[in-house]
Amino acid sequence: MIKRPLPFVDPVIDDAELNKVIDVIKSKWLVEGKVVHELEDKFKDFVGTKYALAVTNGTTALHLAMEGIGINPGDEVITTPFTFIASVNSISFVGGIPKFVDIDPKTWEIDPKEIKKAITPKTKAILPVHIFGLPSNMPEIMEIAEENDLLVIEDAAQAHGAKINGKHVGGFGHVAAFSFYATKNMIAGEGGMVVTNDEELRDKMESIKNHGRPKKGGYLHLRIGYNFRMTDLCAAVGLAQLEKLPTLLNKRAKNAERLRKIIDQIEEIEYQFVPKGYTHANYVFAIKLSSSEKVDQLITYLKDNNIRSRRIYSTLAYKQPAYQNIKEWRWAKVLEYPDYSKVKTPIAKDIATTHMEIPVVPTLTQEELKYLEKVLLNWNG
User: Fold this and answer.
1) Catalytic positions, please?
2) Order of all β-strands in the sheet with 355-358
């Protein structure tokens, strides 16, 4: 038996983060300042966009993106139900109407064919989610958006390091949101980033995230805004993490490749398909079994062998009580929402009930990987 339970979350934190945080504390400038702006500059270079704005977390990044591009009450935003609830809630925050479509059975990403079918005169935008770190089919999605004069907000919360033909996600749509939550490929404790190539949009979002102030700040407020500012303390952690990120991504990629070779030997298990030219960020290594019962059996088996695993999005977004009871939401007093109890996405439903996560973290040792391989190959599902 191995010495520790094999984790599916294990942040790499050391003196690099500690020293940067100490420097911030010694400076006595804890709120958004030069450290935040340094993180913004370095992150935009990492992603390859012209602009980046640091915010309090991934959810506020999505919210700010929605506010910035002008999603108004009653506007429909097409998205996937197979995601964390923040993706969908960001649409609802601004009075948008989430419109759910099915996913691709191999990649588990939003299906462009289903997007096309869902477009109506009320459709304003598309919100693809790069689930588990695999890019959505952005070339097709952008083509659909251009043909129908739609906006595209990329939810890249899980996709630090994900690329299509060498181009980093976040640079395809009109705006994109990243998260630095404590489980992500790159963390800041909490924190997030909005990226764009549109200078006017960047300036608008910078104002919105700082109480609607103009660039020079002060006590003039041009629009209704929020306090979505990141602290220099979080940014210090983020900077140290960004420096480590290429190494961490490389380790995740090697671990994921090994896991794929293991899974290829097990008939009853599949994994998320990675199309040619796509770079998976390997935030989560998710596998699919033939039934929900098989998932329960494998999770129990792995737990008995000191390996942590779990279901993730087993309840689709529109199946959550918040959307089944959407009439209780304040915008429902003035807007007409769909009856989400009637939404059908059979592929997403199947993936939701038959997928689970196994460890892919960069801290796995060769001994632990060999142990994981042995345990998986010995499973008699």
Assistant:
1) 184
2) 270-271, 285-288, 355-358
Look at residues 144, 183, 246, 225 and name the one whose alpha carbon lies nearest to residue 57: 183
How far apart CA 357 and CA 355 sit, in angstroms, is 7
- Can you tell me whether residue 48 is helix, strand or coil? coil
Q: Does 1 score more than 80 pLDDT? A: no
Asked whether residue 323 is domain-assigned, the answer is no
**Do 159 and 169 contact (CB within 8 A), yes or no?**
yes
Residue 106 has pLDDT above 80, yes or no: yes
What is the per-residue pLDDT across 114-154, written as a single tens digit (0 to 9) for each? 999 999 999 999 999 999 999 999 999 999 999 999 999 99
pLDDT interval class at 70 (50, 70, 90): very high
Terminus-to-terminus CA distance in the chain, angstroms?
Answer: 21
Domain extent for 131: 15-241
Residue 41's CATH number? 3.40.640.10
Residue 79, H or E segment:
strand 76-79
Q: How many domains is the chain partitioned into structurally?
A: 1
SS3 379: coil
